[in-house]
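Why run this: before we spend reagent on co-expression, it is cheaper to look at a predicted model of the complex and decide which construct boundaries make sense. The entries below are exactly what would go into the expression plan.
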Amino acid sequence: MIQHLLHISHVSKHFGGNVAVSDVSFSVEEKQIFGLIGPNGAGKTTLFNCITGFFPATSGDVIFDNKKINTLRPDQVCKLGMARTWQRVKPLGSLTVLENVMVGAFSVTSSTREAEAIAQEQLKVVGLSDYTTKSAGSLPIGLKKKLELARVLATRPKMLLLDEICGGLNHTETDTILDIIRSIRKKGATIIFIEHDMKAVTSICDQIVVLNSGEKLAEGTPAEITNNPDVIAAYLGGGHHA
Amino acid sequence: MKQIAFIAAIAAIAISLPLVIGESPYFIGILISLLMMAALSSAWNILGGYAGQYSFGHAAYFGAGAYTTLILLTLYNLNPLLCMAMGVVVASIIALITGSIVFRLRGHYFGLASIAVAEVVRLSVLNFEFTGGAQGILLSDVVLWDLDLNSKIPFYYGMLLVLAVTLAITAYLRKSKTGYYLQAIREDQDAASSLGINISFYKNKALLISAALTSVLGSLYGLYIRFIDTSAVLDLRLSIEIILTAIIGGVGTLWGPVVGALLLVPLAEMLRSNFFGDMLINAGLVSETSGVGMFLKDNLAHAHVLVYGIITVLCILYLPKGVLGLFRRKK
Amino acid sequence: MSFLQPLISGILTGGVYALAGIGMSLVFGVMNISNFAHGDLMMLGMYLAFFAFTLLHIDPYISLVLIIPIAFLFGYMMEKVFINRVIHHPHQNQILLTVGLGLIMSNTALLAFTSDPKILTTTYSSSAFNLLGDVSVSVPLLLSFLITCLITVILYLFLSKTSTGMALRATSQNREAAQLMGINVAKMSAIAFGIGTALAATAGALIAPTYYIHPLAGHSFLLKAFTICVLGGLGSVVGAGVGGIIIGVVEAMSSTYLSSDWKDVIVFVIFLAVLLFRPQGLFGKKGGQ
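The model came back. C-alpha cells follow.
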C-alpha cells in the first residue's frame, strides 16, 4: 500500500487580484524525491510558502503525515517534521556556521551540548566541518547553500523542501549537493525539490510536477515530462523572457 | 579560567570600591548612577541587542517599578520587597500588552508602539490623582529594614547586585537555546521561523525578562532617591539614554552596556557639573567674565542631551558596533 | 454646546496635522525610514515663522514663501550628509540616527532660544467669526487650513503630473525596480526628505500663531505624525491626509467631551488599537506586500 506523506489538494493562493497558485493538487510518497519545476513566476516558491505556513493558502488543503496543516505557523510545521530551505539563502549572518546549525538542532533538543553534537554531525554530512567557527555571513554562496542544507537537516525532518538549492552553483558544486540529497534520501527522508534547471531535476527526481502561471501543467516521471509537448512549449516560451 | 579571573577581579574592585573612596556621597552617587545605567542598558540589551527588538519605551517599565513601589509604600507601608515584586507584576502586564499588540507585526512597528505605550503610561500617571500627578511622589518617614537611609552605601550594593544578576542572566541566556533563538530572530525572522522558532513567544519572553529587571531597577531607584515624578522616571529621554549606553558600548554583547555606562555616565556628570567649562576657564583659555565664559557657565550644564545627540549620530555613522566592536573586527 | 464646534475646529487643526503626516509618510514611502526628527523639523518651522515675524515683520502665512525653500534645502542637505549613509543599515540604526539628529536640533534650539515658550501674536490671532449662529471659527486656524489644502493640491499635482513626482512614486512603490528603470533613487530620497522637511516646517509655521513655540514642542507632534501615518497606512500620502483630519477631530472631541488632559492619551490608544486591529492602516489593502 502506498503511503502519501504529503497531499496537496486544490490549493490556490491569491494576492489581492493576482492569482499566484491556482487549484494545484498532487501527492508525495514517502522517501520520494519529488521535483517541482516551471518557468520563472510559475508559483513554485509561493506554493512552498503555502505548504510551510508562510502564507496560508486562500483555498484548498495541505495534509502532511495525516494532519491538516493549512493554518499552522511555519514553526509548527517545522516541529511536525517538514523543513525548508530558501531560494535566496538566509544565513544568520553574525552567528558562526556551527551556531547556525545549532539553531536548527534546538528544535529537537533543549541542551546546548546536544545541539552542538547534532550540528557537528550535520556539518560533516554536508562537508562544512572545516568552517565551524567562521561567521555565516562571510561564506561564499556555494557554502551558504550547504549551510542551509545542514541547518534544516539538524531539525531531523521527515520531509525536506529545497527551493533552488543548486541555483547559482557551478557543475561540481551542483553534483556534490545532488550526492548529499541522494544520501539523505537513503537515510529515510522525503524530498521536494524546486529547480529551474531541467537537467538537475531529471537526473535525480522520481516524480515531477510542472507548474506554469500558477497552474499544474503536467505530472509524471522525468521521461514522461521531458517528452511532454506542453512542457516543452512552456519552457521555450518562458525561456525567451528569462 | 582567564574569564573567571577577569570576572573575579572586576567583582573584587566593585565590592571594595566604596571602602577605598570612603563615604563621599557625591562619588557614591555617581557610582550608583553608573551601576544603574549599566544594569538598565544590560536589561534592555537582552531584548534589543540579542533579539534585535529596539524598545524606545523602557522608561515605562522603570517607571512602573518606581511608581508601584512608592505608591504601595506610602499608602500601605508594605514590605519593600513585596512592593518591588508588585512593580514587576505591573511592568510585566504592560510588557505583555505591548508584546501582544506588536510582536505579530514586522519592521518599524515595535519601536513606534513601544514609544506609544510609554507615552500612554506617562500621560496617565501625570493625569491620575493617586500617582501624585505632576507633583510626583515624595517618600518620607519610611523605615526600610534597619538601613541608615542617609547612607548611600546600601543602594550601591543593591544596584551592584541587580547588575550582577542581569549580567549573569545574559551570560546564561546567550549560551542557551533561548539565547540562540533570540539571535536567530534578530538575524532573520523568516529563517528563524522556518527552523521551528515560535517568534512571538520568544520575543515576548525576552521582553518580559527585560521589563522585569528594568522594573526592579526602577523600584530600587525610587527607594534610593525617595522622590519621583514623570520627568525623572517615565521620560522618553531616559529610554533613549538606555539605548544610547548600549549602542556606545556595543549592542548584543555581554559587556557592551557596562562599557557604555563607564563612558557615558561620567561624561554626563562632567557636563552637568560644568567640569569642561571650569576647565577651560581655569586653564586661562576663556575668561570667566567674557561673553563666551558666561555662556559656557550658564549653558554647558544643560548641554548634556545635546552632547548625547551628537554622540548618537557619530556612533551610528562611524561606530555602529560600539566601542567593543573595535576590538572584535576579525573572527 | 454644539457638536459642530469641536468638529469644525478639529477638522481645521487636523488639516495642519495632515500636512505633517503627509511629509512623514512620503519619507517613509520613498526611503522606508521612520523619521524621528520629524517633530523637531516642525519645531524649526515654528521658530522660523516666529523670527520672520518678530525680526523681519513678515506675516507668518506670507513667510511660508521663505520657509518652504529654506526647509526643503535643509532637509535635502540633511539627507545628503547623514541619512543616505544609513539607507541600507538595519532600521534600528536609521531610527537612532534620526533620534540623534532630533536631539541635536531640539537641544541646540534650547541653548539658542532658551526654554521660555514664545508666542507669536498677530493682529488676527484671536479673531474669529461665527458660523451657523453658535459655531465660532478661528481666523488663523481657517487660514492655516486653506493654505494646507492649497499645498496638498500642489503636492498632489506635483506627484501625479511631473516626471520627478512620478519617479518619486515609482521609488515608493518598488525601490529596486525604480532603480532598474534608470531612476536615480538616491536623488529621489534626498528630494523626498526635502519635501518631507518642507511639509513639517510648513505645518510648524502654520500652527505657530495658535500654539506655544518651544524647543521641545516637536515631541508631541512626532507621535501625532506617527499616529497619522499608521492610521492612514505607512507610506500612503492620501491615507495620511485623512488620518490627520481624523486625529484633529478626535483631539477636539476628547477635549470637549472628556478633558484636554487626556486627549493625547486617546490619540496614542487609537494608534495602538490600529496596530492591533488594522496594522495595514484604515485605507491599506489587506494582504498587500
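The CA atoms of residues 92 and 208 of chain B lie 6 Å apart. Chain B has 16 helices and two strands. Bring this page to Monday's planning discussion.
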